[in-house]
Design a protein that fits this description.
heterodimer, A: 284 residues, MetI-like fold, 75% helix, globular, B: MetI-like fold, two-stranded antiparallel ribbon, 1% strand
Chain lengths: 284, 333
């Protein structure tokens, strides 16, 4: 074979290999969604999502997982709010007061490292914090631990959005005599679409994370009532129902997973749309 | 002044020149000062959180580390907390092998996908393909685990393991069918591979896109094919970044808990075959939380496991991130 033809063949081969691997990933994604939908739909009923577990729920008797759905929403929302209180000032600080300093790289590195820490480690840390503070497994402890998990996601996503604001905006703002605090306000307004996306991403992650709430939020069959009581969550509902030996209860795990997946898909879709829609008013 | 007031920039940003004088009012100065202090302190909190987590876990694992030497813990083969035996070796081996299986399956396709997204497609196709990666990132761990139980485990049990046993298993013990259940290293490794794929692909894509355009243009104008251009870019500019992507994927897989725990079988034994069940560290922590209070040093042992995970992941992550950052900065300059 001539050299030219060999080069062409190599080009073709690798192009197809690349397409194949992306296609493979897309197929696996489809397969996951299909498996979850197909197995979940059969067990899903109105009762499942509108009732709390009745007596003997884990033996196959009646009831639903409303406690876990509401609990997950509380956990996700609480954690996102708490993380927001730290992430927004940090990110704005990095772009205003620390705009040209080396602190910026240090904080970014710390956040990146936090992003990589497994949620089970946060769970263990949250547990040791609970012991230290004398707390029991509760909604509050779960929210605090989960906030640590979502903080780097929120902060780094927001950071990238603020990074994209044009440099001229900074010059114009400061040239008009604004203080750096007022400049923060300008940056925040500019990055609201990104903020919404970041919040949705963090919320989705908070709902789906199980390892961090396993020891800190506990589990209960009741609806969440107080910050200091244990609370149920959807991922743990899936996990616990799946580990029972009864097929009827395992089928409920499939339905719970379907509810969780649909929630996550809706949140991803909203994040996608929010970026496109809210972005119209941003100066680029 | 009027001219400035009218520009849309001023209207849309909400910043208006208040008076013609330049002196800050006391109120604005005070607000600025307070905002500076407050935001700086939140940044400090965020930066030292990692250290705080390490210190807290170290404090909780001290009781165990005071009694046993590191050597005993890391190389000990027997795990019997009720008799005071805390050997982490089977768990560390389980974690390493399951992660290695996942990486072996995921690395090549993920890097090829990342390169494809960065080098071969138009912006439009990219926006169409990107959701595949984003959705794979977004699916919760427990859903991956359930998919593993419903799809991968039966696949391994009924098809892959009998087939591997017939063909390779006779000569290579690593592929012999040691476990009829299907729950084991291969099943968990496959699920993990799907979970780390989007991470590696996304980092690879980011790294490749940070390579300056001129380099590509120079190579293409010399008559190189696209793949030859890609190879040259990877060799001369992208390699550290792609290695970093692999390291990031590795550390993500190393700490993954629920999906692995649901599919790996959870038997504390040194793995001998790819179909063996194993018991990785995160599963150890997650599974034994309920009963740990009753046995002395048990809690401390689980905290040591968490500390070990933290140290491995932080070292790997910090190294990889620093490498990526250096590369991206070099590309931007």
């Amino acid at each position: 074979m001539s050299r030219r033809r060999r080069r062409k063949a190599e080009e073709k081969l690798f192009t197809w290999l690349m397409r194949l691997s992306l296609l493979g990933a897309a197929c696996v994604l489809g397969l996951i969604l299909f498996t979850i939908f197909w197995r979940g739909v059969g067990a899903l009923s109105w009762e499942m999502i509108s009732q709390t577990p009745q007596g003997g729920f884990y033996l196959g008797k009646g009831g639903g997982i409303l406690n876990a759905i509401v609990g997950s929403l509380y956990l996700g929302a609480g954690a996102t709010l708490l993380a927001l209180c730290i992430a927004v000032p940090v990110v704005l600080y990095l772009h205003t007061y620390a705009a040209d300093s080396r602190i910026r790289n240090g904080v970014r590195l710390a956040l990146d490292i936090m992003w990589g820490i497994p949620s089970i480690v946060y769970g263990a840390f949250g547990f040791s914090l609970m012991v230290f503070l004398g707390l029991r497994a509760s909604l509050l402890a779960g929210i605090i631990t989960l906030a640590l998990v979502v903080l780097p996601i929120l902060a780094r996503t927001l950071d990238e959005v603020v990074e994209m604001t044009p440099r001229q905006l900074r010059e114009a703002t400061l040239a008009l005599g604004a203080t750096r605090f007022e400049w923060m306000g300008v940056l925040l307004r500019q990055s609201i679409p990104g903020l919404v996306t970041a919040i949705l991403l963090a919320f989705g992650r908070g709902i789906g994370d199980a390892a961090s709430v396993l020891f800190t939020a506990g589990y209960t069959d009741n609806m969440p009532q107080s910050l200091l009581r244990p609370v149920a969550s959807l991922p743990l509902a899936v996990f616990f129902q799946l580990s029972t030996p009864f097929p009827e209860v395992q089928a409920r795990a499939y339905a719970s997973a379907l509810v969780l997946t649909v929630l996550i898909l809706v949140i991803s879709l909203l994040a996608h749309l929010s970026m496109a829609r809210l972005g119209r008013h941003v100066i680029r | 002044m009027e001219a400035i007031r009218d520009t849309s920039l001023v209207r849309r940003t909400g910043v208006l020149p208040r008076r013609s004088g330049c002196r800050l009012s006391l109120r604005r100065a005070a607000l600025d000062w307070a905002a500076h202090r407050f935001s700086a302190s939140t940044a400090v909190v965020a930066a030292v959180l990692v250290i705080g987590i390490g210190v807290a876990l170290l404090a909780r694992s001290r009781p165990l580390l005071d009694v046993y030497s590191l050597r005993e813990l890391l190389l000990g083969q027997v795990w019997l907390p009720s008799q005071g035996l805390f050997g982490f070796a089977p768990f560390i081996a389980g974690s390493l092998v399951v992660t290695a299986v996942a990486m072996a399956l995921a690395v090549a396709p993920a890097i090829l996908s990342g390169i494809y997204l960065a080098e071969y497609v138009t912006a439009r196709t990219r926006t169409a393909l990107k959701p595949v990666i984003d959705l794979l990132v977004g699916i919760p761990s427990v859903v991956y685990g359930l998919w593993g139980v419903l799809f991968i485990v039966p696949l391994v049990r009924d098809h892959l393991s009998p087939w591997a046993d017939r063909t390779l298993g006779q000569s290579i013990p690593f592929f012999s069918r040691t476990n009829p259940s299907g729950y084991g290293l291969l099943a968990a490794g496959f699920v993990l591979a799907v979970m780390v794929f989007p991470l590696i692909a996304a980092v690879t894509e980011e790294v490749m896109r940070s390579v300056p355009r001129e380099m590509r243009e120079a190579l293409l104008s010399l008559g190189a094919t696209r793949w030859e251009t890609t190879k040259a870019i990877v060799r001369h500019a992208g390699l550290p970044g792609i290695l970093a992507a692999i390291v990031l994927g590795f550390s993500r897989a190393f700490g993954e808990t629920l999906a692995v725990m649901m599919t790996v079988g959870n038997v504390a034994r040194m793995p001998r075959s790819i179909f063996d069940p194993a018991y990785p560290l995160p599963a150890l922590i997650a599974n034994n939380y309920g009963e740990m209070m009753s046995v002395p040093l048990y809690e401390s042992a689980l905290m040591s496991a968490a500390l070990f995970l933290l140290v491995v992941v932080v070292v790997f992550n910090a190294g990889a991130r620093l490498a990526v950052e250096r590369l991206v900065r070099k590309g931007a300059a």
